[in-house]
């Protein structure tokens, strides 16, 4: 009969190579992933069959509690994969930061200085003021009957200035919308959704290793201990 490995043995093995990963806070990404895959493993057919075969020595909640208590030791079995995922994520974050910085600098050089922004504000304002003055003067001259041809000319000039103001406002609006669409940060999509395939691949490798080399072997080992203890007349720890 091969020797049964206890939780203490698993914890000691986690120090192989001189490395023991520090557990993240309970709300951290690795903790959430661990608990999600632990629940998947407990619901798997393999673990359910082993639970049925152990004769009630352990139930699902007891097995889950043991796995949570040994989370650090289990995670140590896939420390290399997890470190690879963290490095890939750090590289992607740094790369996105550089892209955002260069994009902001380019946008500032393209639209934040020079004559164009000044004209975008000045032309509609000046055209609007001129339209108001021309129209008021033209209608005033027409109302008082003084030199009607001058009044008609002023009204025509006012209408032209008003058309220029409206056209300039529409052009400014279109320019602003195009600039906003062009300068939208790439990083707003985060590190998911296919934006970083290297990060997604590293995460998949880590998660697969966590399930197949960490959680499942631990659960099955504890159930095997329960079967051995039940046959020997000893209650499982």
Helix content: over 70%
Describe the main β-sheet briefly. none
State the shape. Answer: rod-shaped
Our estimate of the beta-strand percent is under 5%
Order of helices and strands: HHHHHHHHH
Rg, Å, rounded? 36 Å
Low-confidence stretches: 1-27, 186-193, 233-237
Distance between the termini: 20 Å
> Which structural class best describes the helix and strand composition?
mainly alpha
- On the 0-100 scale, what is the average pLDDT? 74
Tally of helical segments: 9
Topology:
Layout: H1 7-13, H2 29-42, H3 45-53, H4 60-69, H5 71-76, H6 79-111, H7 116-144, H8 148-182, H9 197-231
What does the model show?
With 237 residues, the chain is mostly helical. Helices cover 75% and strands 0% of the residues. Helix 2 packs across helix 9, helix 4 (60-69) packs across helix 9 (197-231) and helix 6 packs antiparallel against helix 9. It is rod-shaped, with a radius of gyration of 36 Å. It starts with 6 loop residues before the first helix and ends in a 6-residue tail after the last helix.
Considering the chains and any ligands shown, give keywords for the structure:
disordered C terminus, 237 residues, mainly alpha, rod-shaped
Please summarize what this structure is.
The chain has 9 helices and no strands. With 237 residues, it is mainly alpha-helical.
């Amino acid at each position: 009969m091969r020797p049964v490995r206890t939780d203490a043995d698993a914890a000691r093995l986690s120090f192989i190579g001189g490395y023991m990963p520090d557990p993240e806070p309970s709300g951290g990404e690795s903790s959430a992933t661990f608990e999600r895959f632990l629940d998947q493993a407990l619901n798997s057919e393999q673990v359910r069959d082993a639970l049925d075969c152990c004769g009630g020595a352990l139930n699902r909640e007891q097995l889950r509690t043991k796995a949570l208590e040994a989370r650090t030791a289990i995670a140590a079995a896939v420390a290399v994969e997890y470190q690879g995922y963290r490095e890939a994520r750090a590289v992607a974050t740094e790369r996105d930061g550089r892209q955002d910085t260069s994009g902001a600098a380019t946008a500032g050089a393209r639209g934040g200085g020079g004559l164009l922004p000044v004209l975008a504000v000045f032309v509609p304002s000046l055209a609007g003021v001129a339209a108001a003055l021309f129209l008021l003067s033209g209608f005033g001259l027409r109302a008082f009957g003084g030199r009607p041809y001058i009044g008609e000319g002023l009204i025509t000039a006012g209408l032209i200035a008003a058309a220029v103001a409206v056209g300039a406002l529409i052009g400014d609006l279109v320019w602003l919308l195009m600039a906003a669409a062009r300068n939208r940060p790439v990083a707003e999509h985060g590190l998911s959704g296919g934006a970083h395939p290297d990060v997604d691949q590293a995460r998949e490798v880590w998660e697969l290793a966590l399930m197949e080399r960490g959680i499942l072997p631990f659960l099955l080992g504890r159930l095997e201990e329960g079967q051995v203890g039940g046959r020997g007349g000893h209650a499982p720890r």
